[in-house]
């Protein structure tokens, strides 16, 4: 066995054995068994989600430019305004690739340092009010993690807000970078937590495809058993994902059917 440090996780894997033919066939049967439960979206449905995210990202970037122009006390030059950027990042089950048909999308609006949370819950809400695709708009500022809830072109979407202490937001920003948390207020740290945890899980699993298939199977099982609910005192989505990720670390080369068996 190679040193522990060569593997993700706190220990070395239990087994490095790859899948046998029977394991691959069982994994195919597992996927067939999951299909009636509506866990796999069509190409059209996946494209629709991507269009929604592109649209909301465009709205956010334009809104940040408009807010910057209105900051008369700062008086930014136009070329600087165009460089401020802004970004919508996804997290939760959709980011993990373990969402089901019609599931909501969890997002975080990343803004540069001169854009305030008050701007997000005032002028950006107004932007959304005048966006035809947006229905059922609600701003919940008093929540533990303040957020905006909406239905965007038929898909439920939640958006939290984080202002980073950066003058510009690069397109390829890595939210796992702990230096980004410096000097942030508690609400912004909480808003970033979802993305940071999700990205870290994906970073630490040896095979993302096998992880996603196994997690989907576990979610179906947990929901059918009535134990998939953080609100009711059971495990929530992130907790199940962490448990499945750990099994994937212990059996890094195993097929989804094997991982499901080892989980149980």
Structure, explained:
This protein has 264 residues and is an alpha+beta fold. The protein has 2 domains: 14-40 and 201-263, Orthogonal Bundle (Poly(a)-polymerase, middle domain); 43-191, Beta Polymerase, domain 2, CATH 3.30.460. 47% of the residues lie in helices and 13% in strands. It contains 9 helices and 5 strands, in the order αααβαβαβββαααα. It has helices at 21-34, 43-70, 78-83, 92-96, 117-129, 186-204, 208-224, 237-250, 256-263, and strands spanning 87-91, 105-111, 134-140, 147-152, 155-163. The protein has a 5-stranded mixed sheet with strand order 1-2-5-4-3, sandwiched between helices. Helix 7 packs across helix 9 (256-263). It is elongated, with a radius of gyration of 21 Å.
Instruction: Provide the CATH top-level class of the largest domain.
Output: Alpha Beta
Return the structural class: alpha+beta
Q: What is the count of distinct domains?
A: 2
Helix and strand string, N-terminal first?
HHHEHEHEEEHHHH
> Which segments are poorly predicted (pLDDT under 50) over 5 or more consecutive residues?
none
Sheet bearing the most strands, described? 5 strands, mixed
User: Measured on Cα atoms, how large is the radius of gyration?
Assistant: 21 Å
- Terminal CA distance reads 25 Å
The CATH architecture of the largest domain would be 2-Layer Sandwich
Percent strand equals 5-15%
Q: How many individual helices? A: 9
CATH superfamily of the largest domain: Beta Polymerase, domain 2
Mean pLDDT: 93
Helix content: 40-55%
Strand order of the largest sheet: 1-2-5-4-3
